[in-house]
Amino acid sequence: MNIVLFGPPGAGKGTQAKELAKHYNIPHISTGDILRANVREGTTLGMKAKEYMDKGELVPDEVLIGIIRDRLQMPDCNNGYILDGYPRTLPQAEALETILEEIGKLLDVVLNIEVPDAELIGRLSGRRMCSCGESYHLMFNHPLKEGTCDACGGKLYQRDDDREEVVRQRLEVYAAKTKPLIDYYDKKGLLVNIDGTGAVEDVFRQICNVLDSYRK
Fold this sequence. Notes:
Blueprint: E1 2-6, H1 13-24, E2 28-30, H2 31-41, H3 44-54, H4 61-72, E3 81-84, H5 90-103, E4 109-114, H6 117-125, E5 127-129, E6 135-137, H7 164-187, E7 191-195, H8 200-215
Parallel strand pairs: 1-3, 1-4, 2-3, 4-7
Antiparallel strand pairs: 5-6
Helix pairs in contact: 1-8, 2-3, 2-4, 3-4, 4-5, 6-7
């Protein structure tokens, strides 16, 4: 299965992508991960990307699509892949379609995990972090002692991008950027909307039901 996965911040997209990758034995390809890997390994495209990243600038589409093309041609993608974090714009979607045609790995489905903004705000603004790497949630996974990490006893904090006003802004930006892509893939008959409001296991089961129907 060749999959693109969409979902707003807090929708559980990363969690679902990891579980799907294990279940179907296909790689979860995050653009951030492959960018960092190319920089770390010193590839030609990685060095080009690093020039922009070091200046705090966005990596140009032509560099990013080259890195994605190389990644999708690796042997572990022969049975499928899950693209996470790409495409993010219509030009990127069009460039992706071109390279997928060239390498013979066209998309089977675009999954769009939908969760109401009110629930997303609750999910994200309730998150608390510890410097040791542990994370908690005021509703779903609260620490034994308020404000204190169970693992190391450190003081918990709220990330700046988890504050409610920032979360609202992130969701507005995501909706504005993603809507043209949703429309683009919907017109191509590739889009399937997924109800992301249930438990992680329920959402996973729903996605698997969709994907299994494509494999029959």
